[in-house]
């Protein structure tokens, strides 16, 4: 089955700096790569996603890049703010059984310090 | 309505109890999911329903029994659970097919004594 690795497990940055989180996946059948932010005690919420036929996508301070050949994808957050502090999960998805089977990475605890 | 709702928020049960978790969405999604999330870990897929039919069971023990009574509702029936089953149980829904965002509910925090 699919295996998703995520690094780093913790990341501490100063407010205004950039943060980069990297993931790799194993199954070339995965074709959709969402990123979820989960604050303590809350539900995971989608912050950005990318399809396998796209190399890069940007939404304001957040960008995601995908290298299908190397099976790598990364999340870039610029001008970080304290409210960006949370756990971030990457995921790889493939269509299965009429839905999308999401396999999550192990998570990155991002801390933005003042 | 663009939210997935779950009840109850918290549940404490003994190993001999029978309880049910409930999930509801009114976004017209035809795929619904149950995930289990332990502390400081990612969500792990348990079940997928597509058009009210169970399509994926990730080798979940039979003490967890899912049910999809209609396109808006998803239940998870619990019986004879173990303390290691204590976790946050998340429900999610999405449109069917590829590239579709899964919307998560707030979860039920389950404690098995």
How does this model look, in words?
The complex is a heterodimer of chains A (114) and B (113). Chain A contains no helices and eleven strands. Chain A has strands at 4-7, 10-14, 19-25, 32-38, 45-51, 56-59, 62-67, 72-77, 86-96, 99-104, 108-113. In chain A, a hairpin with a 6-residue loop joins strand 4 and strand 5 (45-51). With 114 residues, chain A is mainly beta. In chain A, 0% of the residues lie in helices and 61% in strands. In chain A, the strands form two sheets. In chain A, strands 2, 4, 5, 9, 10 and 11 form a six-stranded mixed β-sheet that branches. In chain A, strands 1-3-8-7-6 form a five-stranded antiparallel β-sheet, with no helix packed on it. Chain B has 113 residues and is an all-beta fold. Chain B is built from no helices and eleven strands. Chain B has strands spanning 4-7, 10-13, 18-25, 31-37, 44-50, 53-57, 64-70, 73-79, 87-94, 103-104, 108-112. In chain B, strands 2, 4, 5, 6, 9, 10 and 11 form a seven-stranded mixed β-sheet that branches. The radius of gyration of chain B is 13 Å and the shape is globular.
List key phrases describing it.
heterodimer; A: mainly beta; 6-stranded mixed beta sheet; 5-stranded antiparallel beta sheet; B: 113 residues; mainly beta; 4-stranded antiparallel beta sheet
Number of beta-strand segments of chain A: 11
From the spread of the alpha carbons, the general shape of chain A counts as globular
Counting copies of identical and different chains, the oligomeric state is heterodimer
Please, how many helices of chain A?
Answer: 0
- How many separate helices of chain B? 0
Approximate helicity band of chain A = under 10%
Q: What class, by secondary structure content of chain B?
A: mainly beta
Instruction: Give the averaged pLDDT of chain A, no decimals.
Output: 96
What proportion strand of chain B? over 45%
Radius of gyration computed on alpha carbons of chain A:
14 Å
